[in-house]
Amino acid sequence: MDFINPDNMAIVSCPGGKFFADLVVTHLNTIYEKRFSSHIEILSEKYSISKEELIRDFNLYLDMISHKELGDEIERLNYLKNKGCIRLPKFNIDVTPTYFANGEVKVEINDTIRGKHVFIFQDVENNTPCLLNNGKLEKVLSLNDHLMFLLVTIDAVKHAGCHDITLVLPVYPYSRQHKKKGREGLTASLLGHFYESLGVKDIITLDIHSREIENTFSSTKLENLHASYQIIKELGNIVDITNDKKDPFIVVSPDTGAVDRNKFYSTELEKPLAMLYKERDYSKVSENSEKSNISSIKLLGDVEGKNVFLADDMLATGGTLIKAMRFLKENKAKRVIAAISLPLFTGNAIDNFEKAYREGLFYRIIGTNAVRHTNLREREWYIEADVSAFFAEVIIRIYNHESISDLLDNRHMIKGITKGNT
């Protein structure tokens, strides 16, 4: 961490991304304090100077090389007495998002960000009310509203003189529009060109729907994170994944497109792998969890009497997943547990899964807090895996130009869970 210029990192939150950004900032403060304390401890031992004296001298140096405008007497008194403690950087940048009556949006940056590395947070799937217009308006924004706020925020920080721009997008917008079947556009690629043309240096996202989207960029770096460690940690809290004789366990890929993901879980958990093969009627469009275009399902493997674990990247209406769960229970699966990196739960999905749970079609669904939900967390069948600390560590390393390879390949951490060393 750059202890001399820690304020060169700036967090700018779009309306939809503020909740997740605040979680991440809490972890950023913890990481900074931990790294700073460790650094001071080493210097104290090296130069035989007390840690208290080192912290005081460090703060004196920072005060000498920086200029701070003191707004009032209270701020002046706090500044004068704040000399012997660890000072946490001010990561959050004050912004004012405005939503006009005709649907236009605007973002004003209220703090200076000149020369800073700005991390812009946006959760385009946030369906909870957002505070806008200096708190005078509370509104549920559409995905396209969130997307427009993201674009105007990028433009605003660029015009405000920032040095680097990194987007933190737990859900990459329009990621399912990554290939063509006819006369249609490639919207995922189109948005990528927008970001790159606006000067975005890095994009941090979670379990992107298709790695083909990375081919959109020529200079922008896409960091695709995986929530497998956080999911397996929660899985280990609800079933015994270390004793297969006591509680037989099998990983089932919900379709052919999810084979690689579930093969990873199968390998790391050291469990057998099965697969569901779905035939679809593409003359129909999946409308909700009850009206999907699946015409038949076949099982390659044996799930009778076993705990079944399915993993997928995204859940929208959930129709295909509920059909898969019903099929597995009809094939005498003991308990069905699903893991979803990006739990969108669009339309009436939550109510439909509540109904399916009451029917006994599944035991638990593990999702991440990459998408904000309020009422979903209250459901007995839903478990939320926290990925905010994961994002914070990645952000710190990107800011410091450090390697994130061990965070992208988390198999060594998963081994600690599967071997019972939690």
CA(first)-CA(last) distance: 28 Å
DSSP summary: helix tally: 12
Rough outline = globular
Q: Structural class of the helix and strand makeup?
A: alpha/beta
Question: Roughly what is the average pLDDT, rounded to an integer?
Answer: 90
Q: Indicate the percent of residues in helices.
A: 25-40%
Give helix and strand order, one letter per element, not per position: EHHHEEEEEHEHEEHEHEEEHEHEEHHH
Rg, Cα atoms, Å: 24 Å
**Strand line-up of the largest beta sheet:** 12-11-10-13-14-15-16
Assembly classification:
single chain
Low-confidence stretches: none
Strand content: 15-25%
| Main sheet attributes: strand count, strand direction, barrel closure | 7 strands, mixed
Secondary structure topology:
Blueprint (H helix, E strand, L loop, with lengths): L8 E5 L4 H30 L3 H15 L7 H9 L13 E5 L5 E5 L7 E5 L8 E3 L4 E3 L3 H17 L4 E6 L17 H11 L4 E5 L14 E5 L2 H11 L10 E5 L5 H11 L3 E8 L13 E7 L6 E9 L3 H12 L4 E9 L5 H10 L5 E5 L13 E4 L2 H12 L5 H4 L2 H8 L4
Parallel strand pairs: 1-4, 4-7, 7-8, 8-9, 10-11, 10-13, 13-14, 14-15, 15-16
Antiparallel strand pairs: 2-3, 5-6, 11-12
Helix pairs in contact: 1-10, 6-12
